[in-house]
Structures are given as structure tokens and as C-alpha cells.
Specification:
With 111 residues, this protein is mostly beta strands. It is 5% helix and 43% strand. The strands form three sheets. Strands 2-3-4-8 form a four-stranded antiparallel β-sheet, with no helix packed on it. Strands 1-10-9 form a three-stranded antiparallel β-sheet, with no helix packed on it. Strand 6 and strand 7 form a beta hairpin. The longest helix is centred in the last third of the chain and has 6 residues. It comes from Pedobacter alluvionis.
């Protein structure tokens, strides 16, 4: 796992809000759901809707276009959707919020 500093503590989204950031070449959505910070991919896999216009409901992230829902814990779509979103681990440290990305075996070997 490779960790990148995403935000300073004063930049963390307020409760019940979604913020878009760019980090390590990826566009991510940071969601403050009940004071837990969750990092996800920024676009819905179904129709490409941007999650920054979405909202959280019952522990799910809801896409603003077709109202598809994705678990904030597992990334799985609701029953019958057959899709998922990427959820990235987050760590709140003394100096801010960090997000972890899995390293490919190729980058470990040659990185």
C-alpha cells in the first residue's frame, strides 16, 4: 500500500458533504458520512455520472443521474445492479488525511 497526503485537517469536508480532489493521477470523491471520511472513485460506472452531485442514504452513495446506489463500506452496487465502485482506505493522521492505493506488482518491481 502506498499512502498519499490528500488534505490538511482544515480541508476535510464537513459532515454530510462530498468533495472532489485529484491525487496521484486519480480524481476521487471524499465523502464525510457521519464523521467518517470515505474515498471513492469520482464517476458512476453505470452512466458516468459524477458523484460530487450525489448524496448519501442509509450507508450508500447515490448517483445523481439514475439514482444507482453503492455501499460506502464494500463499494458494491445495490442488488440487481451488478456493478461496484472503488473504495480507497483513508487514514486521519496528525498532519491531515491520507489515502492509500494498492501498488501493482509491476511498480513494486520496477518503481
Amino acid at each position: 500500500m502506498k499512502w498519499f497526503k490528500a488534505l490538511n485537517k482544515n480541508q476535510i469536508p464537513q459532515p454530510d458533504t462530498i468533495k472532489t480532489i485529484e491525487l496521484a493521477g486519480k480524481q476521487l470523491c471524499l465523502i464525510n458520512n457521519k464523521n467518517e471520511i470515505i474515498a471513492t472513485q469520482s464517476h458512476c460506472p453505470h452512466a458516468g455520472g459524477h458523484f460530487s452531485g450525489g448524496w448519501c442514504k442509509n450507508g450508500n452513495l447515490v448517483c445523481p443521474i439514475h439514482r444507482y446506489e453503492y455501499s460506502l463500506t464494500t463499494g458494491r452496487g445495490a442488488e440487481g445492479q451488478g456493478d461496484y465502485i472503488n473504495i480507497y482506505p483513508t487514514e486521519l493522521r496528525e498532519d491531515g488525511l491520507y489515502i492509500g492505493f494498492e501498488e501493482s506488482w509491476w511498480s513494486k518491481l520496477w518503481g
